[in-house]
Amino acid sequence: MSEYCFICAKLLTESEVVTVERDMKTLINASIERVDDFSEYLKNQKFVTIHENCRKNYTRKSSIAATNKRQREEQDPVHQQQVLLVLDHVSVNQLFVSKNYAYFVARN
To answer: What is the DSSP string of 35-76?
Structure first.
């Protein structure tokens, strides 16, 4: 058993984990839909031990759709321009940009 959940990369604890063996195809299909390359890892496993909530969220159709939408928006230059236009109309004191998010502190 791996010590970490492959989905969230956090340490596994016995109280909240599930071992997936029969339902590996569901995890593989979710990975393919998410285009996250975990499917290659999963195809080589007979079973995985992961957090129960991670499994539920990872395979839930609405979560997959939301993740895919967010990834499309991050890659869409029109969406990025809209975000910049919104920020342009706000008095910004400091702007912090990370890989996926922009944080700003507005002036009073």
So the answer is: T-SHHHHHHT-S-EEEEHHHHHHHH-HHHHHHHHHHHHHHH-
Can you tell me the distance from the alpha carbon of 101 to that of 45, in angstroms, rounded to the nearest whole number?
A: 33
Burial 71-94 (b: 16+ CB within 10 A, else e): eeeeeeeeeeeeeeeeeeeeeeee
The confidence score (pLDDT) of residue 108 equals: 43
Assign 108 to helix, strand or coil.
Answer: coil
Q: 43 and 78 in contact (C-beta within 8 Å)?
A: no
> What's the pLDDT tens digit per position in 8-43?
999 998 678 999 999 999 999 999 999 998 999 999
How much is the pTM? 0.64
Report yes or no: 68 and 75 within 8 Å, Cβ to Cβ. no
Any idea where the domains of the chain sit in the sequence? Answer: 1-75, 76-108
Q: Tokens at residue 60, please? A: 């839930």
Q: Which two tokens stand for residue 88?
A: 């342009």
